[in-house]
Amino acid sequence: ALQMPYSESPASQMRTNGRGTGKAFAGHGAIEEGASSLTIPKGTSLTIWGKEGQAITDRAGRLIEQGNFEELINLNGGMIEGAVTHLPGATIPRMVLKPPHGLNIMNNSITVGSDTYINKLLNRNMGNVHWAACLVCQ
């Protein structure tokens, strides 16, 4: 799994002992209003488990990282209102993944050490990947 090195001190990050699917972008997240959009590359799809402007809990993020969608639905059915999978060729807003300061993150999830635009993280032929971060507008 893609994992960018952390720039913050070890005390500011928390990792769980568990392993996720390795197919989730985990941390804090945002949508940059007014920024150009991005097209999902060939062979890749992106599932977003909430609607734009919505925050998710740390627990919900871990369930997404684990691929435990049944428990995610049971945890908070309203949280997934607006959930969508963007297929190859779809246009999505410019999303930013931020470091997971203060979050419990699965060992093999995709994380970043500094704010990183989604276009730097999505590549061709990744299969279905999941956004396990908030979508708060900034």
Can you describe this structure?
- It contains two helices and twelve strands, in the order βββββααβββββββ.
- Strands 2-11-5-6 form a four-stranded mixed β-sheet, with helices on one face. A four-stranded mixed β-sheet has the order 10-8-3-12, with no helix packed on it. Strands 1-9 form a two-stranded parallel sheet.
- It has helices spanning 58-66, 69-75, and strands spanning 14-15, 24-26, 28-31, 38-39, 44-48, 84-86, 91-92, 95-98, 104-105, 116-117, 127-132, 136-137.
- α1 (58-66) packs antiparallel against α2 (69-75).
- The chain is 12% helix and 27% strand.
- The model is unreliable at 1-12 (pLDDT under 50).
- 29% of the residues are buried.
- With 138 residues, the protein is an alpha/beta fold.
- The longest helix has 9 residues, at 58-66.
Q: Specify the number of helices.
A: 2
> SSE order, as H and E?
EEEEEHHEEEEEEE
Task: Classify the secondary structure makeup into a structural class.
Answer: alpha/beta
Low-pLDDT residue intervals, each spanning 5 or more residues: 1-12
Q: Tally of extended strands?
A: 12
Helical residue percent band: 10-25%
Overall pLDDT level? 83
Largest sheet: number of strands, sense, barrel closure = 4 strands, mixed
How are the strands of the biggest sheet laid out side by side? 2-11-5-6
- Strand proportion, as a percent range, falls in 25-35%
Shape: globular
Radius of gyration: 14 Å
Terminus-to-terminus distance: 28 Å
